[in-house]
């Protein structure tokens, strides 16, 4: 029988201690005792990868080889080496068995006996509980060290400072890097100059040949803003500043939110101050913050002197970035892709080559399409009723909702298994209570995430409940759409359109509701091929 073995350790320290080699040695011995054959290409290992995630190169390789029927049995020391979460263990075991591979655990052999299956489930739940407990202990220990001034709130060396290489997170070893500190001071001075902006500072840095903190030839807006807004440079670094929240703002309608998480500042009372050497004065820092606030209010993106019907709703069909509205000195209005002028893209030769979009012609084209939809309220009513039945939601929200619902279902199963284990006198009452409380807290967190997700989809549900109202609005607007002022047109555009994707050959108008049975798969309702004719 052809065998494969898999070993994993969670941390680099364990990898350096050669515990993974001990696992592999035991697994190879077991394979030899069983008389199975083991090819060197079928030894899979993950050094320093957490069992809480499935994103592991060795595990991915194992699953790929199993799909090609390269071996008949997979030998692992224990279930928690395969995965920490019970649901991941079940998923992987079922996947391997469906591909004709038997999974063998050396320390905890698995059988089809119901009692053994129950014990395996309990061990998986305990391993998941231990993982959560370790994470919480590490978080509390980190906060305690921050409060006692024994730990810096950095995982990477900040620009402008040098750290003790032997103890990189020891506050006592922080020193100012003279060269980088001079650059920080220069950035502050440039920005405080009359008429300067962050983009102007970026151009000056590039002209001076100064590389970014990561060694790139051009600084980004975020890196310069990070230097200008970091209070660390005034002599105080702050830990415990951020908390994770579900991602709510997308960079572009065509760009997903990635991990689905973002960071928000905690109340200032929760921040933990750690003194470090100062590079700029508090007075200089305060003046920069005042100018940043003033420039934000007067920025071109907030300039409403000109009426752009599709402001903030257009995406480039070539690079998928959003567009900005601009008016030339001759009074011509355009939508321009941000990829044409982003400093990094320009410096690296990746500037978008999409043409400027005549704003007046495109606004007219989209408004005409909206009028056609509103003239036939049956289309809108049908779409809203489909939304009311839950037959359509944006794909990102559908995926996140499904993940949360799977997590809630897993919590319910864990509660049932835990109760069965307690009734079978496998676990003591004290341990039962601790695990039950942990599962309840996890379930509460998932419920909170689900409530946030439902709030994000409230717009779709509200539209569905107002189906009859929309019909009445359509009747009232049918004769007056051509006379609607800009504010009324803009209100309808924001209500009905998710985004407009423009390329050299076509315009896609993507509505917030499905106008056909393909709604769940296609996020747009009309594909306009007369772009050139209308915009020429």
TrEMBL record:
Keywords from the named record: Coiled coil, DNA integration, DNA recombination, DNA-binding
Top-level taxon of origin: Bacteria
GO BP of this protein: DNA integration
Entry annotated with the keyword DNA-binding: yes
PROSITE patterns (alphabetical): RECOMBINASE_DNA_BIND (PS51737), RECOMBINASES_1 (PS00397), RECOMBINASES_3 (PS51736)
Ranges where the Resolvase/invertase-type recombinase catalytic domain occurs: 2-149
Gene Ontology molecular functions: DNA binding; DNA strand exchange activity
Keyword set includes Coiled coil: yes
Signal peptide: none
Active site (catalytic residues): 10
Coiled-coil blocks: 429-456
One Pfam family matching this protein: Recombinase
Recombinase domain residues: 158-298
PANTHER family: DNA RECOMBINASE-RELATED, DNA-INVERTASE FROM LAMBDOID PROPHAGE
Protein's UniProt name: Preprotein translocase subunit TatB
UniProt source species: Kouleothrix aurantiaca
């Amino acid at each position: 029988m052809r065998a494969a073995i898999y070993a994993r350790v969670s941390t680099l320290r364990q990898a350096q201690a050669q515990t993974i080699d001990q696992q592999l040695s035991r697994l190879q011995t077991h394979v030899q005792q069983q008389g199975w054959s083991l090819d060197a290409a079928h030894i899979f290992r993950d050094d320093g990868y957490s069992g809480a995630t499935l994103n592991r190169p060795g595990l991915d390789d194992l699953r790929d080889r199993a799909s090609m029927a390269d071996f008949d049995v997979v030998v692992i020391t224990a279930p928690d080496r395969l995965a920490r979460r019970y649901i991941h263990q079940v998923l992987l075991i079922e996947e391997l068995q469906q591909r004709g591979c038997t999974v063998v655990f050396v320390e905890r052999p698995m059988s089809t006996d119901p009692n053994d299956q129950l014990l395996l489930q309990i061990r998986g739940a305990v391993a998941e509980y231990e993982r959560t407990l370790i994470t919480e202990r590490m978080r509390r220990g980190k906060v305690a060290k921050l409060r006692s001034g024994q730990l810096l709130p950095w995982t990477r060396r900040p620009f402008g400072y040098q750290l003790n290489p032997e103890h990189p997170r020891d506050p006592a070893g922080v020193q100012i890097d003279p060269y980088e500190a001079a650059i920080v001071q220069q950035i502050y001075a440039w920005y405080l100059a009359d008429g300067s902006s962050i983009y102007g500072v970026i151009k000056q840095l590039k002209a001076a040949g100064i590389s970014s903190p990561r060694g790139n030839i051009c600084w980004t807006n975020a890196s310069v803003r990070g230097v200008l807004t970091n209070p660390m440079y005034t002599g105080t670094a702050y830990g415990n500043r951020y908390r994770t929240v579900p991602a709510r703002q997308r960079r572009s309608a065509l760009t997903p939110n990635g991990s689905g998480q973002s960071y928000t500042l905690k109340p200032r009372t929760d921040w933990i101050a750690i003194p470090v050497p100062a590079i700029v004065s508090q007075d200089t820092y305060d003046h920069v913050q005042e100018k940043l606030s003033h420039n934000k209010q007067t920025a071109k993106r907030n300039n409403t002197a000109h009426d752009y019907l599709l402001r903030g709703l257009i995406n480039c069909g070539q690079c998928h970035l959003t567009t900005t509205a601009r008016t030339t000195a001759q009074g011509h209005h355009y939508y321009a892709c941000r990829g044409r002028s982003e400093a990094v893209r320009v410096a690296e030769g990746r500037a978008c080559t999409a043409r400027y979009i005549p704003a007046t012609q495109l606004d007219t084209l989209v408004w005409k399409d909206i009028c056609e939809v509103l003239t036939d309220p049956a289309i809108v009513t049908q779409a809203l009723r489909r939304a009311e039945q839950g037959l359509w939601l944006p794909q990102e929200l559908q995926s996140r909702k499904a993940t949360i619902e799977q997590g809630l279902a897993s919590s319910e199963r864990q509660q049932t298994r835990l109760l069965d284990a307690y009734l079978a006198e496998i676990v003591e009452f004290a341990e039962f209570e601790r695990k039950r409380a942990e599962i309840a807290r996890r379930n509460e967190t998932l419920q909170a995430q689900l409530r946030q997700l439902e709030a994000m989809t409230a717009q779709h549900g509200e539209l569905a409940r107002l189906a009859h109202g929309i019909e009445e609005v359509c009747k009232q607007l049918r004769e007056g759409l051509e006379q609607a002022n800009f504010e009324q047109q803009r209100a309808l555009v924001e209500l009905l359109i998710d985004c407009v994707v423009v390329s050299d050959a076509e315009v896609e108008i993507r509505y917030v509701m499905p106008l056909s049975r393909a709604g769940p798969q296609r996020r747009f309702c009309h594909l306009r091929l007369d772009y050139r004719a209308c915009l020429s």
